[in-house]
Design a protein that fits this description.
Blueprint lengths: L2 E4 H37 L7 H27 L9 H23 L3 H28 L6 H25 L14 H20 L2 H7 L1 H8 L16 H36 L4 H16 L2 H8 L1 H19 L9 H23 L7 H30 L7 H16 L13 E4 L1
């Protein structure tokens, strides 16, 4: 029997990732600047005094995610109803996110910093409710050998959302010291509208229970072709070798995100302090657009060289790109650097998540997805605080160390990945792509 990947359906479930990355792009660029303005207006903080506080506030939601994502993932594994075990969380969490995200902007305009932080926390709780289950939809209905290809397609759709979010930020951009009356709420409103539309589309068009039943036999075949050292079963613990591999890949993911999120969180502040400009959103679009273009062509390369090598090459490219960035004199000079980094992240993203869910059985994909997010979210939480206080301690010259921070921790991720040992599997069945 041939393994089949339904490309159309995979694109369709990628819409959830589209909504997630769209909101994330607007949030990561805008929220640090909004906090910077609120801290200045309410407490008089200037220059580097706000970095540590912004880092703590940005990290609070990541700390919540460390606990909530595995909890909601496990909960969705055990959910059974007519909507489906994942779609129940997608619908509820997506709807709540649509409510709380634009309310953040409203609290900024009325200059209520504590209500702003409260809306931020509620928005992140809502996002955690549906993010893990939404991402679990892909491995739920995709046999293990086909997951890198499916993940590339899902990432392709998701990065369209990141690009749209970046465009919204560029169109309605602002300087941190502008009058609050000049701040547009449109990026928040439009993001909420698009997210609500996607939630409704998935609700009425994606019948999760029906698809799971259709894919049952395919998924069983996929389990026999796992790259784990021993077959993963629902009621059997991972083998010693597979546990070691899981710890290695989680540490690799942790370090990669530790580097990347510091740059993403403080990038808009870096650009303003280093170059006196406000085009960080444009660089995010460049990275996302490059990754978008690269995802589908890289599918064949990833299949040929393997998942581990894809991650290693991707991180190697990122190390090179971040090193070059140290010497760039302005935002425009960073464009080719971010194009290179986009290519690196495309290679990493195609294979990193499939490597982790390779350790999951058909009964605990949501839980393992949550564990994957423990690595990413704990990295984001720790690096937001650590980088914030580190940059503050450096004073006015903090921008000189901005890129070096990213280089160092990406090198750590690369070294860790070298110790990962997958089992080589020869596919005994042909792969057929269904439209």
């Amino acid at each position: 029997m041939k393994l089949k990947l339904n490309v159309r359906r995979t694109f369709f479930i990628g819409l959830a990732f589209f909504a997630i990355l769209m909101l994330w792009r607007v949030h990561l660029v805008q929220t640090p600047l909004l906090l910077r303005r609120l801290l200045y207006d309410n407490f008089g903080y200037t220059e580097g005094e706000y970095f540590g506080i912004i880092g703590i506030i940005m990290a609070i939601d990541n700390v919540l995610a460390i606990f909530l994502l595995p909890l909601f993932g496990l909960w969705s594994d055990r959910t059974k109803n007519r909507l489906g075990k994942r779609m129940t969380f997608v619908i509820i969490g997506g709807t709540l996110s649509v409510i709380f995200f634009p309310l953040m902007a409203v609290m900024f305009v009325v200059n209520r910093i504590w209500l702003f932080i409260a809306m931020l926390a509620l928005m992140k709780i809502a996002m955690n409710l549906w993010r893990g289950p939404a991402v679990s939809l892909m491995p739920d209905i995709t046999p293990k050998p086909l997951r890198p290809k499916a993940n590339a397609i899902v990432n392709f759709v998701g990065y369209l959302g990141a690009i749209l979010g970046g465009l919204l930020v560029m169109i309605w951009s602002f300087q941190w010291n502008d009058a609050m009356a000049d701040i547009s709420l449109m990026p928040f409103y439009l993001t909420a509208v698009v997210m609500m539309a996607i939630v409704l589309i998935l609700l009425f068009k994606f019948k999760e229970n029906k698809v799971n039943e259709e894919m049952k036999e395919q998924m069983e075949i996929g389990e026999t072709l796992s790259e784990t050292q021993e077959r993963v079963e629902a009621n059997k613990p991972l083998s010693k070798a597979d546990k070691k591999n899981l710890w290695i890949v989680m540490a690799t993911v942790f370090m990669a995100w530790f580097a990347f999120n510091a740059i993403d969180t403080f990038g808009s502040n870096f650009e303003q302090d280093a170059f006196g400009t406000d085009n960080w959103g444009m660089l995010g679009i460049v990275l996302a657009l490059t990754a978008l273009v690269a995802f589908l062509p890289l599918i064949k390369l990833t299949k040929k060289i393997g998942r581990k090598n894809s991650v290693l090459i991707g991180m190697g490219i990122n190390i090179f790109a971040l090193t070059i960035a140290i010497f760039m004199p302005n935002t425009w000079a960073l464009i080719p650097v971010f194009m290179l980094s986009g290519l690196g992240w495309a290679l990493v993203n195609i294979s990193a998540f499939p490597i982790v869910v390779e350790m999951a059985s058909l009964k605990n994909i949501g839980l393992i997805t949550g564990i994957y997010y423990i690595a990413t979210q704990s990295a984001q939480a720790l690096t937001s605080v650590g980088a914030g206080f580190f940059f503050r301690a450096l004073g006015p010259n903090w921008t000189n160390w901005f890129w070096i921070y990213g280089v160092v921790f990406t090198v750590f991720a690369f070294i860790l990945c070298l110790f990962f040992k997958p089992r080589k599997v020869e596919m005994p069945v042909a792969e057929e792509v269904a439209s």
